[in-house]
């Protein structure tokens, strides 16, 4: 014999079903899920919840819609604004130094932090951490050398971020343009310093798809 649920237990289970459901629940759905609850008890519980979750002082309302019941947020415009703010996408802010390191990685990948440091002339640990946190670069392997340092490369998000189908779509970067990047960074670090370039390859081109 099936045990009949008391009102308090029925209420707890109805609340759980309402919270878990992604669409309005009809009375038949409640009966299927809670066969031990009587129709009278379900009606009573749902009516009580409608009254409890109502009014401007509640953030959640129980409403009847599409032939069923569903928990909805309070339609107050100020509550709606707060919810939109909660889910709005915050723009990613990248410093010029991080953009410089990102450009070097994009064109020379895979490469180690030491190689990036050599090109930039400064320690790149901080900007590499930042770029990893925003998922624009990642560790793609280890160099077969002493200490087996990490090798860095760009991520699929990098392609999405810059609207590229593949890394092969990067425009060709002339040596003079790389030099300009290095000069720009040196000037940011110390505007009065002389610019010395001791590492400028003839030309840097994006990797082909076969090289990825």
From TrEMBL:
- Which gene carries the instructions for this protein? scpB
Question: Would I find Cell division among this entry's keywords?
Answer: yes
Any Pfam family matching the protein: SMC_ScpB
- In its UniProt entry, what is this protein called? SMC-Scp complex subunit ScpB
The record ties this protein, via PANTHER family, to: SEGREGATION AND CONDENSATION PROTEIN B (PTHR34298)
Keywords carried by this UniProt record: Cell cycle, Cell division, Chromosome partition, Cytoplasm
Q: Which residues form a coiled coil?
A: none
Region annotation (Disordered) ranges: 190-212
Is the keyword Calcium in the record?
no
Q: Please tell me the species this chain comes from.
A: Lujinxingia sediminis
């Amino acid at each position: 014999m099936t045990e009949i649920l008391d009102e308090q237990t029925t209420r707890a289970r109805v609340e759980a079903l309402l919270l878990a459901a992604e669409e309005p629940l009809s009375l038949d759905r409640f009966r299927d899920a809670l066969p031990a609850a009587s129709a009278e008890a379900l009606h009573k519980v749902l009516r009580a919840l409608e009254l409890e979750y109502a009014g401007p002082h509640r953030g959640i309302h129980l409403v009847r819609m599409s032939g069923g019941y569903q928990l909805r947020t309070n339609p107050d415009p100020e509550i709606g604004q707060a919810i939109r703010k909660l889910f709005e996408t915050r723009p990613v802010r990248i410093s010029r130094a991080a953009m410089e390191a990102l450009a070097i990685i994009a064109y020379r990948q895979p490469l180690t932090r030491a190689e990036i440091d050599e090109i930039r002339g400064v320690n790149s640990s901080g900007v590499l951490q930042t770029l990893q946190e925003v998922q624009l670069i990642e560790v793609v392997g280890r160099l077969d050398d002493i200490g087996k340092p990490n090798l860095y490369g760009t991520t699929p998000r990098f392609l999405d971020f810059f609207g590229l189908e593949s890394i092969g779509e990067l425009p060709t970067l002339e040596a003079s343009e790389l030099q300009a990047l290095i000069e720009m960074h040196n000037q940011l670090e110390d505007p009065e310093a002389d610019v010395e370039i001791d590492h400028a390859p003839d030309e840097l081109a994006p990797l082909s798809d076969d090289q990825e």
